[in-house]
């Protein structure tokens, strides 16, 4: 049956625990945003003005970040390829200037075509 891409991603990322990988931060940020909007920061206020903070929300947000950071300390098992790293770095430098990329896109395909 159909499984939403984020569901498949979550299953795959759980299998990667303990291995090196770069988690997709779009899913993490979406989870954090949804949780932020869905759960109140303050559980309740008493008549005397005491504020009860939603600790469960704080714990869950911390857990989301901790899960993402688990991958940070893991080493990759593949060999370093300096030539490939150089190509990637060169491409990154060439695409940093957003205005230049915008202008280039119109030189390649002018407006209205």
From TrEMBL:
Ras-GEF domain location: 1-111
A molecular function (GO) term: guanyl-nucleotide exchange factor activity
InterPro entries recorded: Ras_GEF_dom_sf (IPR023578), RASGEF_cat_dom (IPR001895), RASGEF_cat_dom_sf (IPR036964)
Keyword match tRNA processing: no
One BP term from GO: small GTPase-mediated signal transduction
Pfam families to which the protein is assigned, alphabetical: RasGEF
Keywords, comma-separated and alphabetical: Guanine-nucleotide releasing factor
Descriptive protein name: Ras-GEF domain-containing protein
Organism of origin: Lotharella oceanica
